[in-house]
Amino acid sequence: MSDVRAFLDASEAFFGHLAAVSFGALFLALLFHLVRLVFRVRAWQNILRAAYPDAGVPFWSAFGAYMGGVGVNAITPARGGDLVKLYLARHRVQGSSYPTLGSTLVVETLFDFVVGTVLLLVALQLGLLPGVSHLPALPAFDWSFVVGHPQIAAILGCMFVAGLILLVHWAAGHVTAFREKVTRGFAILDDWRAFTARVLVWQAASWVMRVVAVFWFLEAFHIAATPETVLAVLVVQGLATTLPFTPGGAGTQQAVLVFALAGTAARSAVLSFSVGMQLATVALNVVVGFAAIAIMLGTVRWRSHVLAPEEGLTSRARAAVRSRSDSRA
């Protein structure tokens, strides 16, 4: 409930500052946000192509699956949109399987993990984020139990990791086909030159677009877009999506950003910025994502990849096929 209250308070501040928003800067921020997602799709497409070199994997198939997942993630907790990505990709990539597609998503996050960790360490070193001792006191902090009970959290975490390792070990030892499918998703890592040129370059470009988008979001809400404030926003966004107990980390972002930008702008201005940025990106992600889902599931063309030829036809076409068959008989 604290997450909801924090987000509602921030929403009230946002609507109070709505008239002062620079919509030109906001448009540029959303444009660069969308370009960032396009670059990420290109990286994932290349990972899929390495896993399925004979399938082709058109860009728009990867784009539709990826953006469909982004749209669902924007309004559901615990990254439920990733399941949508897998479902849509499974029906678009010929001969694909869920274990392989799942491992491609792991590869797609490797660079983000490294960059996010470096940014987090830098932000902590510069004092842009609250220390561990201050985290439980922040309103709407999703990790309050973890931080407030570190020993219990550590034990539960170790149990979860141990169980996951045992499960993977059992699967690898008893289900050879499963192991091969999972390994196939990491195929791009076998060629580091290809991985660098086809994945890392696109993901690095997506991070550049992310930085530019944050810059224009800050400008739109008249908060000084210094390297420190941009870094703080990037790190807070990463924290909110690492353990997304609420959709898009709603509440958590507002709580941590108030601390991170305390010396930069007034609390009401920071709340207005945080909720405005979140509402704008969620709206764009939902519109593009659900449009992609509607297009991918609304056409019958994709069904021919996973169903029998006759099942991939419309009901009228199937009736015509049966009619011709009967007349020949």
What does this protein structure show overall?
- The protein is 72% helix and 0% strand.
- The chain is an all-alpha fold and 329 residues long.
- It starts with a helix and ends with a helix.
- It has one domain.
- α4 packs antiparallel against α5.
- The chain has 13 helices and no strands.
Structural class: mainly alpha
The separation of the N and C termini measures: 68 Å
Low-confidence stretches: 139-147, 299-329
The percentage helix is over 70%
Helices and strands, in N-to-C order? Answer: HHHHHHHHHHHHH
Count the beta strands. 0
Question: What do the pLDDT scores average to?
Answer: 78
Portion in beta strands: under 5%
Radius of gyration: 23 Å
Task: Indicate the topology.
Elements lengths: L1 H15 L6 H29 L7 H15 L7 H10 L7 H28 L18 H5 L1 H25 L1 H9 L7 H29 L6 H16 L9 H9 L6 H32 L16 H14 L1
Helix pairs in contact: 1-12, 2-3, 2-5, 2-9, 2-12, 3-4, 3-12, 4-5, 5-8, 5-10, 9-10, 10-11, 11-12
Fill in the keyword field for this structure.
329 residues, mainly alpha, disordered C terminus
In short:
This protein has one domain (2-140, 182-298).
